[in-house]
Amino acid sequence: MYYDKLDDFPPDFLWGAASAAYQIEGAYDEDGKGPSIWDVYAHQPGNTFNGTTGDVAIDHYHHMAEDVALMAKMGLKAYRFSVAWARVIPDGDGAVNEAGLDFYRRLIRELKQNGIEPVLTLYHWDLPQALQDKYGGWESREVIPAFAKYCRTLFTAFKDDVKYWVTFNEQNVFTGLGYRWGNHPPKVQDVRRMFAANHIVNLANAIAIKLFHELVPNGLIGPSFGYGPVYPLTGAPTDVLAAVNADDFNNNWWLDVYCRGEYPYFMEKTLTRMGLMPDVTDADRALLKQAHPDFLGINYYHGGTVQQNRLEKPVAEAAKKDFSATDPYLMQPKEDQAQSPEVPMFNAVANPYLKKTDWGWEIDPVGFRVGLRQVYEKYRLPLFVTENGLGAVDQLANGEVDDQYRIDYLAAHLRTMKEAITDGVEMIGYCAWSFTDLLSWLNGYRKRYGFVYVDRDDDGPKQLRRIPKKSYYWYQQIIAQNGAQITEATK
């Protein structure tokens, strides 16, 4: 749909930026904090780029006031952050660490005093190591009451100060990378265990949402999902069918549970046939039906393109692409494994029409609009973009960072988001990933996303100076004008 004129962004639109505790806080063992699975995993040789860890990260724990001042100067309307579970409850299900809780209390106070809406993420991948050791992490139902206790602690502490809450960040990514591909902790490579762990996370998500609605009646809560639309490579009906299958596998498997309280019939039947369907009790199904999110968080980087499955349409060995190691948002097995449910459904391929980032991620701003339209039409929940951004190798030159490429990337995505609003999609806000540079999980500190350059690298923290990039001042103007200057429709 082409428009001569786009609708304005809502007057209360939340222009924001995002982060995650492990990637920025540092202070990994200070003030009573317990170890998380990432603290342990990153210290094991060979697990991360150049052995980088979040021990110091960008030391947000000690630079919090400085970072919030930079947010305020930018004019940020919202800041999405996550709480480190092991900082608040060091062993995951025991006594509350008041010093850890106080850090987030001070952060929320600083944000509110500067007119910035806090958006609190309960879980961004850093499970307390004690729960991994004691129960086996997300493979055990024993973690659910521990998570509920943690949630109750935060709901009680911050129910009057935080309106927007996110339950789980990218459940589709951390279960896949942790339990199937073995690139993240707990470094398991077993697709059956992945689906089993994913079900337990679904139950924990439902428990959290039910508890939230009891304790925080004036707040809003929902999960953040790593979403991407799926395109057929060609107009061949077999490729179109493959795209329908891939959408069920990559998106509906999670979103239908979040928003409808049930597993999609096609995927459930497929996994049951393959012996991969997790154990779902009648009580589980009843619980999932009772949890209703107030909004849906969307993390968008790109979608995917597929063709007919390679069992019916064999491809040359060189054409088989393994996405699992380089791109957590587009995973496809290298081999036709007996327990690879996607193999008979679709074959993921590169999109010939899209350019890629330095890390091989496709750049697809139009897909952003497609995705927002698809999700809103299907579930009719307000959408909150909780991540979208560009990872790049930024260079500091003469005390400045000219990241025009990031501005171009974000501007294209903001334009298509504005088009989606004009289409009729109900949007709460947009949190760019990320506010500052941070630790990029397996990629160390070389892959930068932030509006603010942090003077550190993979060899050490250096001085940790904060230096606003060119994109910082660009986004400052976007916020000041509520996106009014984003007027050009994408043709």
From TrEMBL:
Q: Which PROSITE patterns match?
A: GLYCOSYL_HYDROL_F1_1 (PS00572), GLYCOSYL_HYDROL_F1_2 (PS00653)
What EC designation does it have? Answer: 3.2.1.-
The entry's active site is 387
- Tell me the GO molecular function terms: hydrolase activity, acting on glycosyl bonds
Q: Which InterPro entries match?
A: GH (IPR017853), GH_1_N_CS (IPR033132), Glyco_hydro_1 (IPR001360), Glyco_hydro_1_AS (IPR018120)
One Pfam family of this chain: Glyco_hydro_1
Q: Which UniProt keywords apply?
A: Glycosidase, Hydrolase
- Is Cell division there in the keyword field? no
| Family according to the record | Belongs to the glycosyl hydrolase 1 family.
- Which protein is depicted? Glycoside hydrolase family 1 protein
Instruction: Name its species.
Output: Lacticaseibacillus mingshuiensis
